[in-house]
Design a protein that fits this description.
Chain lengths: 151, 519
């Protein structure tokens, strides 16, 4: 595997020393391209009080290609599917190599505050969200309480 | 340790320059004043306990008092001025209902009992020059609800200081507190009348009239101008004004110092000169910025902030001493400038401590005031402080900002010239038409992947870039100011080119026939 670029080293240093509020990201000791991430559900969102675990991996071509990110904690959200895959422009066609890990995690955090059922990944969830928003929000809250409990 | 002792000790410590300590809040003297003020109140029957009861009653019935204000009929006014009918009086009172204005205008109308007092050194607080304004209240409705007399303590702002006023409303029935306070005040007035020889006859009559009002057991409102609290607030505000002045002087002096040092460092670090300390200064400032000595976080204040900054300054010094940056300066003047720079930070730290100590002293003394008199001045002070000079530590942040910006910007920081993709110096710098700059290597990478959007602003500008987009001026600047980083980057680039050439050669060998294998 290619040596760690100066960019990855600098990004990691800053993520650890000056973390984004509500977000943590720690690289694995044996693989510095693999990060354990947690994101706190924002206040006044259905995910309030939840702590969501994610995994983030920097491919060899990073930052020319986007990191691979996936939710590990089960979450009820129209843009996140059962496998935790995330439908977010920034991760796909809108990725540019000037975007950093911290900016990306911020986008994911704000996706939790503003779900977008018109651009769904989890179709069934998105359907519910459009048909019965109150009910969907209730389910999201229940899932948060059930699966994303803070220790 | 008691605060007074602690305060004294800290002011005497080496952290506080002597000439500043002289301007510090006179905590001990203020403490004595509070004691004497409490005695003064005692003489009027207003012990701390009584006061507590009176004030708590007033909190509940404040609204009632205000509405009853409109029905106040001021006897002394009626006597002096008979041409105004009652209705007019009511109206006037209504307009002047709340706030300091009404108090001041009332003062003009209502006759004072003014007695010459002896000076402060006299141990008998009973002889101070107190003023009483006594109004008879004619509102039985309110009084029936009240079992207690009620009191209000107001800090009325005037131009320079704060004028304290104590307002006590006494009932006309025989409730215990009203009775006692009434007796004490009568005793006080009579006593001072006897001891005072200078009072004119006319004034004397007015005083008698006031005493009669009190003796008649009418429901009265008494506005009392006490002596010691006046002195207390005057002292504290004078001291705060002095501290403010001192702060402005600090600020001016340090701002000037920052400018001088930054000019010196700038001239010692000129990249065009053969002998330059540019690299050493850059490293020193990198260490300085990393330690974020006076960096403000919201959750750290006061003492802890000082300790925090103090530790960070020590850490900075330690890190500098572990290098030979200062010893290795090419110019002697750089060493002197470094010492001045360090001293500047020490000064800032001292100013921070000094102002914090004084702020603490003010808080503590006001707390003491409230504790010994039951008068809740601390709830009133913040509003007043916002308009008067008060100890504000924000100038530390301003000065720190000035150091970081001015001094440090003399030396260009490498971060400002990094390529936003690879995070190393953007050498050779390719400037796209959207004006964003990338290193040539990253740009070529983008072009190979046919990514036309600028990674920073997404405007389509990548594919059209050619060698014409090389920013020669910026390239020269980088070579001048960051020669080390440029060299490193060039080495990296060579490695990549070698690797790519090797790779292509390998492919050629592999796919263009077995010829080379035979060789
Ligand atoms: Zn680059
Ligand atoms: Zn651009």
């Amino acid at each position: 595997m290619a040596a760690l670029s100066k960019r990855i080293i600098r990004e990691t240093e800053r993520l650890v020393s000056d973390p984004v509020p509500g977000i943590t990201a720690m690289p694995h000791e044996d693989n510095l391209r693999y990060f354990d991430v947690t994101i706190e559900g924002a206040d006044q969102s259905p995910y309030e009080g939840g702590l969501f675990k994610l995994e983030l991996f920097l491919p060899e071509d990073y930052p020319m290609v986007a990191p691979k990110v996936r939710f590990l904690t089960k979450i009820y959200h129209p843009n996140i599917d059962r496998l935790g895959r995330i439908c977010l422009d920034t991760l796909k066609k809108n990725w540019t190599p000037a975007i950093q890990i911290r900016t990306l995690l911020l986008s994911i955090q704000s996706l939790l505050t503003s779900p977008n059922p018109d651009d769904p990944l989890a179709n069934d969830v998105a359907e519910c969200w459009k048909k019965d928003e109150a009910g969907a929000i209730q389910t999201a809250k229940e899932w948060t309480a059930k699966y994303a409990k803070k220790e | 340790m008691k605060f007074g002792k602690y305060f004294e000790k800290e002011l005497a410590s080496s952290d506080v320059p002597k000439e500043w300590a002289e301007n510090a809040i006179q905590y001990k003297a203020l403490k004595k004043r509070i004691k004497r003020f409490a005695e003064e109140l005692m003489v009027l029957g207003l012990s701390k306990e009584t006061m507590g009861i009176l004030l708590s009653a007033s909190e509940v019935t404040n609204a009632t008092i205000n509405t009853s204000d409109t029905k106040v009929i001021d006897i002394s006014m009626e006597n002096d001025n008979n041409n105004g009918d009652k209705g007019d009086n009511e109206k006037e009172d209504e307009e002047e209902e709340d706030g300091p204005v009404s108090l001041q205008s009332l003062e003009e109308k209502i006759q004072d009992i003014s007695l010459e007092g002896t000076d402060l050194e006299d141990k008998e607080p009973i002889l101070y020059n107190l003023k009483f304004q006594i109004q008879v209240l004619e509102d039985d409705a309110v009084q029936e609800q009240e079992n207690h007399p009620i009191a209000n303590y107001l800090l009325v702002e005037d131009q320079q200081y704060v004028k304290p006023k104590l307002i006590v409303v006494l009932n006309n029935d025989n409730d215990e507190y009203s009775k006692e306070i009434r007796q004490k005040i009568i005793k006080y007035i009579e006593h001072t009348r006897k001891t005072d020889k200078i009072v004119e006859v006319k004034e004397d009559q007015i005083k008698l009239q006031n005493i009669e009002k009190l003796k008649n057991l009418q429901r009265v409102r008494i506005t009392i101008d006490l002596h010691e609290d006046d002195e207390f607030f005057q002292t504290i505000f004078t001291e705060l004004t002095n501290l403010q002045q001192l702060k402005i002087e600090h600020e001016q002096k340090m701002t000037k110092e920052i400018e001088t040092i930054s000019d010196t460092i700038g001239s010692l670090s000129s990249p065009s000169k053969w002998r330059t300390d540019l690299d050493s200064w850059r490293e020193i400032f990198e260490i300085y910025l990393e330690n974020r000595i006076f960096y403000v976080t919201d959750d750290i204040h006061g003492e802890r902030k000082f300790e925090d900054s103090s530790k960070r300054l020590q850490q900075f010094e330690k890190e500098i001493n572990s290098t030979d940056l200062v010893q290795g300066f090419k110019h002697k003047k750089s060493k002197v400038a470094y010492e001045a720079f360090y001293q500047l930070n020490v000064d800032l730290l001292q100013a921070m401590k000094f102002h914090h100590l004084n702020k603490l002293a003010v808080t503590k003394i006001l707390k003491k005031f409230d504790k010994q008199t039951a008068l809740a001045v601390r709830t009133q002070i913040p509003d007043i402080m916002s308009q008067k000079p008060f100890i504000n530590e924000s100038f530390i942040n301003t000065l720190y900002g000035a150091i970081s910006e001015k001094l440090v910007s003399v030396i260009p920081q490498i971060e400002d010239y990094d390529c936003p993709i690879c995070f190393t110096i953007a050498y050779r710098p390719i400037r796209l038409k959207c004006s964003h700059v990338f290193c040539v290597q990253c740009l070529v990478n983008l072009q190979r992947q046919k990514k036309d959007e600028c990674p920073v602003c997404r405007s389509p500008a990548v594919m059209e870039a050619t060698s014409d987009n090389l920013d020669i001026e910026l390239q020269d600047y980088m070579k001048t100011y960051f020669p080390k980083q440029v060299k490193e980057k060039q080495k990296e680039r060579m490695k990549t080119i070698e690797a790519e050439t090797y790779y292509l050669a390998y492919r050629k060998a592999k796919y263009s026939g077995e010829g080379c294998c035979i060789q």
